Amino acid sequence: MAEIEFLILADHAEAVGGKLYLTGAGWTDSWRGPQPEGQPLPITHFGIAVSVLVAWTETNRPQHLRMRIENEDGTTQHATVEGDIEVGRPPGLPPGSDQRAVLAVNANVQFPSPGGYRIVAEVGEGVRTVSFRVHDAPTPART
Prior knowledge:
Blueprint: E1 3-10, E2 12-16, E3 19-23, E4 29-31, E5 44-54, E6 63-71, E7 76-85, E8 99-109, E9 115-123, E10 126-135
Parallel strand pairs: 4-10
Antiparallel strand pairs: 1-5, 2-3, 5-8, 6-7, 6-9, 9-10
């Protein structure tokens, strides 16, 4: 059975040649700063990296992957990304070996309000989430 092995937020994510390249990965807070009255909310750019582990018995058949952004009460916000992935068995792969598919999605999102959000990724019966918060305050100084 296919499963979401991991799900990571980053400033930017790329998947090239079966490898993930992440910049500024692993954050939980997005600081967009206060906005002047009457100005539109800023657009937040971020990347989502996901690894799908496909069992030997599930290779060479499509696995449906769905990712979405939800707010704290579970309401889907903004985009939903979904599609099928199919991982084959390369020649010489030992019987019973799992296969990994890595994907990266970059998004430009205008969050309607500060607060808690989460990315939800699903494949088959498996679900994995990663939570984060959007703040309307300057980025705090690091010491």
